[in-house]
């Protein structure tokens, strides 16, 4: 059981490029924190700094109240699961699991007891004599997990551990990892670029972009109230629609928008609407009409790309139901809201609490 | 994909068989000649069968001092073996350690070290044979095993191969080992060494052959019969004082000289080919 | 990639053996050669005087150096082209017969392991003027064969021995290169209607050109240096210097003749030639190797 704190953490490379700026993060006992962001946002660097694999330019990493900046990876009592698993190819599964214990001069009988326990826990007991190359992707993943679990570390670090698996296995493994983490109650930092994975696994989510934390919060908080335009666009699938323009001449078909802000709108703003908050209706029945350009059927629902008359940008509409509209048709659009407003820096503008937030589903 | 043209296949096999036989011919003839009595040999027609002398000439060479050399051939073979093993083991050791430092550590003048070592890649000892002799003389190592082996270690081929190989390993392997509590020496022994087995075998074959077959440097540095090597001593039997060398002995000695490396290459063919193709890529 | 940053002494311990060897047995002799090439030793080796480029002009002006240069050129070119052509032919055949190719590979690669000096002796025996098997065949063809007297014949002898020994090296590379050509390319060309002959010259051969170029350099280097043993055991550079190559001359002048200044100048010239080859080679290596 441990806490993990990152205090004003920075990473600068020798060339002068700063890839992480003032990262602040506090993680509670047993919490699963998922760091998500596009590739190159610095999330892996952050994780590797916690592991002790990257040097720290400034700031502190504190585990259980103790600053570990100067400690070697092995001294930090952390365990890490790598994207490519990094299993030792010449060692059997048993030896892979046992290696860290051997290096710590654990007695032989205790090693074999703990290896067997761990193997039971991860359902790999039958594989102990095999070499990594004789294992399937899912089995390797489990061994990599086992190698992390066996040490009973203070902190688990996961570096995109599921991205080498195929889709169905990924869904299975993310449930397994989540269950295991809860059961062992070990503080965890999990890095991924996959927002679905992030949403489903996290106690709290950290969205990163260009070396900064954009927002920290529970998955639903980030979904309902994204603090920045970046978070709004990154969390949720399909992604949020954005309409940009000057606050002074907002299109007339967005009449409700200004009413939602608590402060006067000025300058360039972005208005975000999630695809599920737009409904198709008959022409002339909604706020605006448009032209259906593309329909992507997904089974129980379809994604309908509509170009509103007189506008450049397309809106994606999530249309629930198995009957699908035809491309080329005219359609009306009913923009129900909620709307998300962002100023020209991409910061969220405060909005009034809306009735629709709670009663949305009651509307016809 | 292959064309189904039986004619081409027949032609290919024919050519290959002729080629293989042509390449074996000199050795076959040498083996046959080494079993003939000197009289048969010098009559002018070499019989295409084993001669009456059997292994007599080999026994003579191995037990009695070789003409013009002063020690029996077993001693020459021992010296050649020591030189070949010294070069193979020595090169592998220093090359692995240096490549390990170059790939897995960051230290001042690392790039400089890299270039210092890799400048030696293409300049064989033959180019600087005279000054090398001077250096070895100054170190008091003339006509000694260290003097024989050490200058031949100054080449970066093996270092280059190991560096290439280490660079193909996923860096996460070292990171995982660090997290698992392995320091640099542990990592080298537990992870790197076992993973390099194939490369070590391959380079061992190449370096052993390279070492066994050395000619010019032993010729220059070795002056006493006690340290003479087999390949360099061949000339003692091919120098013709009266026009024709003692071919019955010269062929037997040549067979002794080529047998060990040829056996090594045939037994370890798989590694040899991997090593050769990897080294030069 | 992260490294063992905290260990400052360890990399130096690891580097030390290789660095010491390279500094003592490579750079020290190399610089000695550079220095000696600029000095003239007196007759008793007791003193030396700075001579500028006199050693170089003396070497470059001498007839025997020109001859050695010419011999080396003929020898290297013949060995490289001969060994490569033969190897390519056999490799293409071995690649064609698939599984049996591995058997042929075993039958063809072992000469690599034979010492150049031993290869020389083997061919010297085959071509011995009085009792050589091939000499008799040549005599029936009306050729009067005696490499001990005829310089051209001596050169042919060492060229054959060197080709015989070097062919297998090229064979391994050509075969590996051929087997590395994606089958889809050859299939595409077959669908495009190319026959075996056309397919070889339009697809296979161009794809082998990097290997061929690399082998050309390696063969040249081999012919320059490693064939010393071949020459020394068979012709000792003779008759009349007809097989005296640059390295052989370097050995004769430096080790036998004790001309330190002259041999040092020859060393430096050889280093320049090989350095040039290395540079060319490096452009080739550069494309496939990343320097970190």
Automatic annotation (TrEMBL), chain A:
<dbReference type="InterPro" id="IPR047641">
    <property type="entry name" value="ABC_transpr_MalK/UgpC-like"/>
</dbReference>
<dbReference type="InterPro" id="IPR017871">
    <property type="entry name" value="ABC_transporter-like_CS"/>
</dbReference>
<feature type="domain" description="ABC transporter">
    <location>
        <begin position="4"/>
        <end position="235"/>
    </location>
</feature>
<dbReference type="InterPro" id="IPR003593">
    <property type="entry name" value="AAA+_ATPase"/>
</dbReference>
<dbReference type="Pfam" id="PF08402">
    <property type="entry name" value="TOBE_2"/>
</dbReference>
<dbReference type="InterPro" id="IPR008995">
    <property type="entry name" value="Mo/tungstate-bd_C_term_dom"/>
</dbReference>
<keyword id="KW-0472">Membrane</keyword>
<dbReference type="Pfam" id="PF00005">
    <property type="entry name" value="ABC_tran"/>
</dbReference>
<dbReference type="GO" id="GO:0016887">
    <property type="term" value="F:ATP hydrolysis activity"/>
</dbReference>
<dbReference type="InterPro" id="IPR003439">
    <property type="entry name" value="ABC_transporter-like_ATP-bd"/>
</dbReference>
<dbReference type="GO" id="GO:0140359">
    <property type="term" value="F:ABC-type transporter activity"/>
</dbReference>
<dbReference type="InterPro" id="IPR013611">
    <property type="entry name" value="Transp-assoc_OB_typ2"/>
</dbReference>
<dbReference type="InterPro" id="IPR027417">
    <property type="entry name" value="P-loop_NTPase"/>
</dbReference>
<keyword id="KW-0067">ATP-binding</keyword>
<keyword id="KW-0813">Transport</keyword>
UniProtKB/TrEMBL annotation, chain B:
<feature type="domain" description="ABC transmembrane type-1">
    <location>
        <begin position="77"/>
        <end position="268"/>
    </location>
</feature>
<feature type="transmembrane region" description="Helical">
    <location>
        <begin position="187"/>
        <end position="210"/>
    </location>
</feature>
<dbReference type="InterPro" id="IPR035906">
    <property type="entry name" value="MetI-like_sf"/>
</dbReference>
<dbReference type="GO" id="GO:0005886">
    <property type="term" value="C:plasma membrane"/>
</dbReference>
<keyword id="KW-0812">Transmembrane</keyword>
<comment type="subunit">
    <text>The complex is composed of two ATP-binding proteins (UgpC), two transmembrane proteins (UgpA and UgpE) and a solute-binding protein (UgpB).</text>
</comment>
<feature type="transmembrane region" description="Helical">
    <location>
        <begin position="112"/>
        <end position="136"/>
    </location>
</feature>
<comment type="similarity">
    <text>Belongs to the binding-protein-dependent transport system permease family.</text>
</comment>
<keyword id="KW-0472">Membrane</keyword>
<dbReference type="GO" id="GO:0055085">
    <property type="term" value="P:transmembrane transport"/>
</dbReference>
<feature type="transmembrane region" description="Helical">
    <location>
        <begin position="148"/>
        <end position="166"/>
    </location>
</feature>
<feature type="transmembrane region" description="Helical">
    <location>
        <begin position="81"/>
        <end position="105"/>
    </location>
</feature>
<keyword id="KW-1003">Cell membrane</keyword>
<keyword id="KW-0813">Transport</keyword>
<keyword id="KW-0997">Cell inner membrane</keyword>
From TrEMBL, chain C:
<keyword id="KW-1133">Transmembrane helix</keyword>
<dbReference type="InterPro" id="IPR050809">
    <property type="entry name" value="UgpAE/MalFG_permease"/>
</dbReference>
<dbReference type="Pfam" id="PF00528">
    <property type="entry name" value="BPD_transp_1"/>
</dbReference>
<keyword id="KW-0813">Transport</keyword>
<keyword id="KW-0997">Cell inner membrane</keyword>
<comment type="similarity">
    <text>Belongs to the binding-protein-dependent transport system permease family. UgpAE subfamily.</text>
</comment>
<protein>
    <recommendedName>
        <fullName>sn-glycerol-3-phosphate transport system permease protein UgpA</fullName>
    </recommendedName>
</protein>
<keyword id="KW-0812">Transmembrane</keyword>
<feature type="transmembrane region" description="Helical">
    <location>
        <begin position="199"/>
        <end position="225"/>
    </location>
</feature>
<feature type="domain" description="ABC transmembrane type-1">
    <location>
        <begin position="69"/>
        <end position="281"/>
    </location>
</feature>
<comment type="subunit">
    <text>The complex is composed of two ATP-binding proteins (UgpC), two transmembrane proteins (UgpA and UgpE) and a solute-binding protein (UgpB).</text>
</comment>
<dbReference type="GO" id="GO:0005886">
    <property type="term" value="C:plasma membrane"/>
</dbReference>
<keyword id="KW-0472">Membrane</keyword>
<feature type="transmembrane region" description="Helical">
    <location>
        <begin position="264"/>
        <end position="285"/>
    </location>
</feature>
<dbReference type="GO" id="GO:0055085">
    <property type="term" value="P:transmembrane transport"/>
</dbReference>
């Amino acid at each position: 059981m441990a806490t993990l704190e990152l205090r004003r953490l920075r990473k600068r490379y020798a060339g002068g490029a700063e890839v992480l700026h003032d990262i602040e993060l506090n993680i509670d006992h047993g919490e699963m924190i998922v760091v998500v962001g596009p590739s190159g946002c610095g999330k892996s660097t952050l994780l590797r700094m916690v592991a002790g694999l990257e040097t720290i330019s400034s700031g502190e990493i504190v585990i259980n109240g103790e600053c570990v900046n100067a400690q070697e990876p092995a001294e930090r009592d952390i365990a890490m699961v790598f994207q490519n698993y990094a299993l030792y190819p010449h060692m059997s599964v048993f030896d892979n699991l046992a290696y860290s214990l051997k290096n710590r001069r654990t007695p032989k009988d205790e090693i074999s007891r703990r290896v067997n326990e761990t193997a039971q826990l991860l359902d790999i007991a039958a594989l102990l004599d095999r070499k990594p190359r004789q294992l399937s992707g899912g089995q390797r993943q489990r061994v990599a997990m086992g190698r992390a679990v066996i040490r009973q570390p203070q902190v688990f670090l996961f570096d995109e551990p599921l991205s080498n698996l195929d889709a169905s296995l990924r869904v299975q493994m993310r449930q397994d990892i989540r269950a295991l983490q809860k059961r062992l109650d070990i503080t965890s930092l999990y890095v991924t670029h996959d927002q679905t994975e992030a949403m489903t696994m996290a106690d709290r989510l950290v969205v990163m972009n260009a070396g900064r934390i954009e927002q920290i919060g529970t998955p639903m908080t980030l979904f309902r109230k994204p603090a920045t335009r970046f978070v709004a666009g990154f969390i949720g699938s399909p992604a949020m629609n954005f309409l940009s323009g000057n606050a002074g001449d907002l299109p007339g078909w967005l009449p409700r928008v200004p009413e939602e802000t608590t402060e006067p709108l000025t300058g360039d703003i972005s208005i975000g609407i999630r695809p599920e908050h737009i409904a198709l209706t008959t022409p002339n029945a909604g706020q605006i009409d448009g032209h259906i350009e593309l329909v992507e059927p997904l089974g129980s629902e379809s994604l309908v790309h509509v170009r509103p008359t007189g506008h450049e940008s397309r809106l994606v509409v999530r249309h629930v139901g198995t009957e699908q509209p035809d491309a080329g048709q005219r359609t009306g659009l009913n923009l129900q809201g909620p709307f998300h407003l962002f100023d020209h820096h991409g910061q969220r503008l405060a909005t009034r609490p809306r009735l629709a937030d709670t009663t949305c589903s009651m509307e016809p | 994909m292959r064309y189904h043209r039986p004619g081409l296949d027949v032609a290919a096999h024919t050519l290959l068989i002729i080629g293989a036989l042509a390449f074996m011919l000199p050795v076959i003839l040498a083996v046959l000649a080494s079993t003939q009595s000197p009289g048969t040999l010098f009559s002018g027609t070499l019989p295409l069968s084993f001669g009456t002398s059997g292994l007599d000439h080999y026994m003579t060479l191995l037990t009695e001092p070789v003409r013009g050399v002063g020690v029996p051939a077993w001693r020459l073979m021992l010296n050649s073996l020591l030189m070949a093993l010294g070069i193979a083991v020595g090169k592998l050791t220093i090359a692995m350690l240096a490549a390990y430092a170059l790939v897995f550590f960051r230290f001042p003048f690392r790039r400089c070290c890299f270039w210092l070592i890799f400048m030696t890649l293409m300049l064989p000892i033959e180019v600087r044979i005279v000054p090398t002799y001077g250096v070895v003389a100054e170190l008091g190592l003339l006509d000694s095993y260290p003097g024989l082996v050490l200058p031949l270690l100054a080449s970066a081929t093996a270092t280059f191969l190991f560096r290439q190989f280490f660079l193909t390993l996923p860096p996460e392997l070292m990171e995982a080992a660090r997290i698992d509590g392995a320091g640099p020496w542990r990592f080298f022994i537990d992870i790197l060494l076992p993973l390099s087995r194939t490369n070590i075998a391959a380079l061992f074959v190449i370096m052993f052959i390279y070492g066994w077959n050395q000619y010019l440097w032993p010729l220059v540095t070795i002056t006493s019969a006690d340290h003479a090597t087999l390949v360099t001593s061949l000339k003692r039997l091919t120098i013709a004082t009266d026009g024709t060398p003692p071919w019955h002995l010269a062929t037997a000695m040549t067979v002794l000289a080529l047998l060990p490396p040829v056996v090594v290459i045939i037994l370890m063919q798989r590694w040899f080919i991997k090593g050769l193709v990897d080294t030069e890529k | 990639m992260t490294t063992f940053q905290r260990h400052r002494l360890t990399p130096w311990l690891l580097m030390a053996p290789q660095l010491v060897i390279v500094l003592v047995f490579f750079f020290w002799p190399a610089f000695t050669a550079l220095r000696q090439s600029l000095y003239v030793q007196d007759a008793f080796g007791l003193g030396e005087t700075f001579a500028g480029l006199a050693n170089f002009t003396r070497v470059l002006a001498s007839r025997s150096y020109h001859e050695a240069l010419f011999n080396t050129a003929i020898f290297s070119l013949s060995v490289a082209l001969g060994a490569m052509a033969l190897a390519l032919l056999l490799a293409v055949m071995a690649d064609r017969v698939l599984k049996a190719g591995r058997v042929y590979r075993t039958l063809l690669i072992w000469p690599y392991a034979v010492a150049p000096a031993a290869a020389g002796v083997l061919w010297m025996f085959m071509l011995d003027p009085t009792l050589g098997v091939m000499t008799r065949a040549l005599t029936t063809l009306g050729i009067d064969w005696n490499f001990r007297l005829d310089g051209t014949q001596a050169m042919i002898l060492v060229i054959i021995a060197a080709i015989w020994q070097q062919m297998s090296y090229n064979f391994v590379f050509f075969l590996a290169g051929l087997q590395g050509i994606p089958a889809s390319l050859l299939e595409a060309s077959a669908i495009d209607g190319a026959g075996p002959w056309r397919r070889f010259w339009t697809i296979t051969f161009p794809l082998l050109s990097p290997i061929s170029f690399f082998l050309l350099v390696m063969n040249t280097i081999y012919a320059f240096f490693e064939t010393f043993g071949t020459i020394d055991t068979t012709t000792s550079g003779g008759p009349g210097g007809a097989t005296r190559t640059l390295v052989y001359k370097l050995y004769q002048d430096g080790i036998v003749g004790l001309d330190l200044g002259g041999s040092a100048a020859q060393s430096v010239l050889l280093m320049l030639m090989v350095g040039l080859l290395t540079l060319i080679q490096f452009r080739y290596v550069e494309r496939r190797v990343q320097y970190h």
